[in-house]
Amino acid sequence: MREPREEFMKSFFFPFGITKFILTFVVYYYTNTLLYMIEIKGLNFSYPRQPLLFKDLDLSLQNGHIYGLLGKNGAGKSTLLKNMVGLVFAASGTCRFKGFNVAKRPVAVLEDIYFIAEELFVPSLSPVQFVGNTAGFYPKFSKSDFYSYLKLLDVELDAVMDKQSFGQQKKAMIAFGLATHTSLLIMDEPTNGLDIPSKVQFRKLIASVLTEDRCIVISTHQVRDLDSLIDTLLVLHLGDIVVNCSIDEVTERLSFGVYADTDGMQVLYEEESMRGKNAILANTTAKFSKPDIELLFNAIISDSKPLLNILNPTRHE
User: Fold this and answer.
1) What's the number of domains the chain is made of?
2) Is the domain of 288 the same as that of 163?
3) Between helices 143-152 and 166-180, what is the axis angle to 10°?
């Protein structure tokens, strides 16, 4: 007589049990490994003969979002972005894009990520010539979209890029990056060098190209250029991501306002201004206010523990 365990193994694996097992494994793998567009675990990084810039940094980014990465000068924002795209290499830890280790730079990663650095190097080519030489590396590239974006950003098709102003160069590269239709688009200080009309068009374009299958990460010092565009806030401070919070969560948990007097109020952070006191309080009334991202950033880097506990209760408890 067979033992119960033998009966179980037979019934599970044969004839249909093995199929069930494989399907279960596949579902588990994709659910746990590919849940995030970018997944960084235990990242430790430093430049040669320099102190550790990141220590055990963890970060997960999902598709369908526009992330705004903020941090003080020297916090490591650009370096973190370069780790995401495999341009620098950590001492330990992993950075994965759709499950691929970006440090190995496989084709599946290179053709589906586009990175616009803060400091640009553009060749002595016109945008049309540049497309002819470069677009082939990106399978989803759209020439029609590229020309449309150039027109909206007021960039000439036949102008040699390295003879143009920094702002025009940047707009040409932004147009190209958007037209690649890569799953991950990363931009480091993209509004630097842009005039006010170009910034308006930039915001419109970024909002229009976001899809459920795309993730956009923007690093900036110019918070007010993007506070109406990003839907998730990332703050890099003291070598770690101290905030990874959607703007909806911010407005649910915090209240922003200008007050003549804050005496007797449980203020989490405040700054003096010409209009009064710009203050952040816990949102205890379930009423929504327009978030002041610049004020919030200042509060975060001032190490306001009560505020951080409200934004990330499980992380900072």
Assistant:
1) 2
2) no
3) 150
